[in-house]
Amino acid sequence: MKALDIFSLSLSHVKKSKMRSWLTIIGIVIGVAAVVAIISIGQGMQESVQASLGSLGADLITVTPGFSRATGGGGFGGGFRAGGAGINLTDKDLNVIKQVPGVLYVNGMVSGRSDMVLGTEKTSVSVSGVDTAVWRSMITTKLEAGRYLQPGDSNAVVIGYSLAHDTFLQPITLNRPITIGGKSFKVVGIFAQSGGFGGGDNSVYMPADYARDVITENISRNTFTSIMVKVIDQSLVNQITADVVQKLMASRHVNPRTRDFTVTALATIQQQISSITQTISLFLAAIAAVSLLVGAVGIANTMFMSVMERTRQIGLLKALGATDNEVMKLFLMESGLFGFVGGVLGIIFGILISVIISSVGLRTIGPGGEMSAVVSPQLLIFALAFSVFVGVISGVVPARTAAKMNPVDALRFEQ
């Protein structure tokens, strides 16, 4: 028989048993849809994290007071301030870091919270005081309107997207006077939407000296709550991080046991978060793939029933000259059809599910969220190929059973 004849026979039998065929296909649809949806949402989460943290720059290092003995002070958990949270960084630390080879810019920052008043409305905001001489060279978040802070700015602020558009009843526009910590400021810039990371969608940025005056916490002059370091080359981040640690330990007269500061490369945080989201996505996809096994069992069951129902047809085909291989191809093509149709429908439903879930996720995150499902062509090709593979494999044993039938016995068979 020609391949086209074999395909026609397979397709005609699938159409003949419509209800059973659709019930068999549903098992594959559920499995493929689950895998596609979970993997695409996982990839979307990864890209969202990469984009958000990437706005901070992979060539940045942060220095914060305090040191966690539990985590060793590095990596994702290194920011936990244990046994030294009250110790602030000083101008001396700033100057020591500037002397480390490979350091390009150093920004002493003052962070805290303060009350912001606009008309009759009042809210608590995150305030970050920065060194206006270097801040522009270190931040990569784009502006929606206005300009960045410049040296010599007084009573000028740059605010986040959400704070400008969503916090108050009326949007905050450029040059609009606002009151923070009882002092009047003018809005000179508004960040573009960033998802809450690099641009600080709900934050206010101002010169460090002014931030000390409005932040509710008492932060003395020449001290900082954190220091941001930009290195000359991204590939040198790990080496420069180690050098900064050594220089600061010598300057602050501490050893690894009494260390009271934490140095963290933002690229390390980015890698660790990406690794976590990727592991979770793969784990969930593996669980979803179990439903494909259930679908495979359904195909195998359907094919065994098909072999039993078509025993006389098999005997007739073999009596007319059909070879064992042709009979086997007949049933393998039929089981492959189940996998193909189930894969196509599963991909369609998987895309719809991922879009719906990511959309619901954006509303849950609120303004500034950027999470969206990423459906790559490679994922779709893999899902379809895998579903066809599952269908064909599920039909191997029933097909072999049909191919091994004796034509005389098959013609005598009565249901």
Roughly how many Å apart are the termini? 26 Å
As a percent range, the share of strand residues is 15-25%
Uncertain runs: 70-85, 195-199, 363-369
Structural class: alpha+beta
Helix content: 40-55%
Topology as a string of helices (H) and strands (E): HHEEHEEHEEHEEEHEEHEHHHHHH
Strand order of the largest sheet: 3-4-9-6-8-7
Mean pLDDT rating? 81
Can you summarize the main beta sheet? 6 strands, mixed, barrel
Number of E-type strands: 12
Question: What's this model, at a glance?
Answer:
This protein is 53% helix and 18% strand.
Question: Care to describe what's here?
Answer:
The chain is of the alpha+beta class and 415 residues long. A hairpin with a 2-residue loop joins β7 and β8. It starts with a helix and ends with a helix. The protein contains 13 helices and twelve strands. The protein has two domains: 3-53 and 276-412, no CATH class; 88-259, no CATH class. α2 runs antiparallel to α8 (266-309) and α10 (324-365) runs antiparallel to α12. The strands form two sheets. The chain has a six-stranded mixed beta barrel. The chain has a two-stranded antiparallel sheet with strand order 2-10.
